[in-house]
Amino acid sequence: MSFIDHLEALRWHVIRAVIAVVVFATGAFFAKDFLFHDLILGPSRPDFWTYKMLCRAGAALHAQGLCVDKIDFVIQNREMSGQLSMHLSSAFVVGLVLGFPYLFWEIWRFIKPGLYPHERANSRGAVFFVSILFVLGLLFGYYIAAPMSINFLAGYVVDATIENQIDMQSYISTLMTMTLSCAFVFELPMIVFFLAKAGLITPEIMRVYRKHAIVVILIIAAIITPPDISAQLIVTVPIMLLYELSINIARIVGRSRTASLNAQLADNQGIA
Fold it and tell me: Where are the transmembrane segments (predicted)?
């Protein structure tokens, strides 16, 4: 295919992906009550699932400090078109999140014809695993990281006379940043998988630079969480587990790649 033909093929992949995102965003826009009351504003109320589980855990462990029975802040809108703008932008973000698996599938369909047969075979299931990791990261961010951060920031005061009256845009920005950051961080095993397939990374390199990786992970956790040690640890631990999992993935991929190269070398020598 010529360069123009490639652009034409890419254009249709992009158009289909955009249509999918728009369809999901339109559905989210019309499901306003669920979108805001249940989904977005859920972590701002003490009846949220995470807080109820913490209360149950606190009762079982006789540690009442774990229970979150009050979130002391009020969400306000201070702009005339603020709620409409936030409604549109929130619906678009939800549409993008729901359409991500299909979006990645369209990108993969564009890339796949340019791969060699063995590369296609080695990358089988990529869309599935990328989507699964994205959803797991999304759920972790929404149910664990974001509520912990919101609860900490809502309860942090420098003086009892100061009330927390949070702007709606600030609250939603915090929620979406935490959730989406975790969703993309959880893609680490797949990133390592493709880098290992390309021979750009090995398990030995990852083990040597493990200490450096820990520092980077702590920095990432500090960026996407508030200055609360417990929240940072909650985010750091799963990322570290993903890093260790990625080392094993790189090891398995490295063995497979070495075996494949040895087989090709043996075939070439046999032909010679």
Answer: 12-31, 86-105, 126-145, 171-196, 208-225
Mean pLDDT, residues 10-17: 88
Is a pLDDT exceeding 60 seen at residue 271? Answer: no
Tell me if 134 sits within 8 A of 186, measured CB to CB. yes
Residues 6+ apart with CB under 8 A from 236: 217, 218, 221
Question: Rounded distance, CA 250 to CA 248, Å?
Answer: 5
pLDDT above 90: residue 41: yes
Quote the pLDDT of residue 250.
87
Burial 3-26 (b: 16+ CB within 10 A, else e): eeeeeeeeeebeeebeebbeebbe
Residue with tokens 């989210």: 28
Asked if pLDDT for residue 235 goes beyond 80, the answer is yes
In this structure, the number of other CB atoms found within 10 A of the CB of residue 118 comes to 10
CB 106 within 8 A of CB 13: yes
- The DSSP string of the chain is --HHHHHHHHHHHHHHHHHHHHHHHHHHHH-HIIIIIIIISGGGSTTSHHHHHHHHHHHHHT-GGG-------EEE--STTHHHHHHHHHHHHHHHHHTHHHHHHHHHHHHGGGS-HHHHHHTTTHHHHHHHHHHHHHHHIIIIIHHHHHHHHHH--S-TT---EEEHHHHHHHHHHHHHHHHHHTTHHHHHHHHHHTTS--HHHHHHTHHHHHHHHHHHHHHHS-S-HHHHHHHHHHHHHHHHHHHHHHHHHHHHHHHHHHHHHHHHHHH-
